[in-house]
Design a protein that fits this description.
Blueprint: H1 8-13, H2 18-30, H3 32-50, H4 58-75, H5 81-95, H6 99-103, E1 121-127, H7 133-142, E2 146-149, E3 156-160, H8 167-175, E4 181-188
Antiparallel strand pairs: 1-3, 1-4, 2-3
The protein binds zinc ion.
Length: about 190
C-alpha cells in the first residue's frame, strides 16, 4: 500500500472519518516509516498545544523552531523527500501566524550582516517571554526599529534603527519598556 502521507496530519488531529482512520491504523501496524511520521506530527501538535498560538510569542516560536530543527537534524540523513515536505508545510503554517515579525524571520541562529543596509550600530535585544507580538511591534514602531536578525539560539534579536537616529537613545527606550524587553545592548557591527 502507498504511504498515506496526506492523511496523517488529519489522523493525528482526529479529524479523519472513521473509515479512513481504520485504513490508516491498519497501514501503521505494518509501516514503521509512517508510525515515525505520526509520532513527529503528534509531538508538533503537543508543542503547539502547550504554546497556544494566540499566546505564542517570539520566544515560544524560537523554542518550537529549535525543536523542529533538532528533529530535522536527527532525521535528515534518513528522511525521505515527502517527510521534509511535510515538515516545511507544518513550519509554514506556524510561521504564517506571526505577521510582520515573521516576515523578518531569519533561519540562521547566528547573526549575519544585511549587506548594503548594514547600520553602524545595532541593538541586541532579548524580549520578555510573556511579551506579545503586538507589544513588541508597538515598541519597535516607537524607536523606528526593525528586526534584522534573530532569534539566536539564546533568543536574542538584532534591531536596526534608521540612519541618523540615536542608537543609544533607542536602546534606552527599549530597556525602559518594562514587561516587554528583558535586556537591550548596543552592538557595534563589524
Ligand atoms: Zn507507510
Amino acid at each position: 500500500m502507498k504511504h498515506p502521507d496526506d492523511d496523517l496530519p488529519a489522523f493525528v488531529n482526529g479529524t479523519l472519518p472513521a473509515s479512513d482512520r481504520e485504513a490508516i491504523q491498519a497501514h501503521l501496524a505494518g509501516c514503521e516509516q509512517c508510525r515515525e511520521e505520526v509520532h513527529w506530527l503528534a509531538t508538533l501538535r503537543e508543542q503547539m498545544q502547550n504554546d497556544p498560538l494566540p499566546a505564542v510569542n517570539e520566544m515560544g516560536m524560537a523554542r518550537l523552531m529549535k525543536a523542529v530543527r533538532d528533529e530535522e537534524k536527527q532525521t535528515a540523513t534518513s528522511a525521505p523527500g515527502w517527510w521534509r515536505g511535510a515538515l516545511a508545510a507544518a513550519v509554514l503554517v506556524v510561521v504564517a501566524q506571526f505577521g510582520v515579525i515573521t516576515s523578518q524571520w531569519q533561519q540562521e541562529t547566528v547573526y549575519r550582516p544585511l549587506g548594503e543596509t548594514v547600520e553602524d550600530a545595532r541593538i541586541q535585544v532579548r524580549f520578555v517571554e510573556t511579551a506579545s507580538e503586538a507589544q513588541i511591534r508597538e515598541l519597535l514602531d516607537r524607536v523606528e526599529g526593525q528586526i534584522v536578525a534573530g532569534p539566536s539560539a539564546l533568543g536574542l534579536y538584532l534591531i536596526a534603527v534608521p540612519e541618523g537616529a540615536s542608537v543609544e537613545q533607542a536602546a534606552t527606550t527599549l530597556r525602559s519598556a518594562e514587561g516587554i524587553v528583558e535586556q537591550a545592548m548596543v552592538e557595534s557591527a563589524e
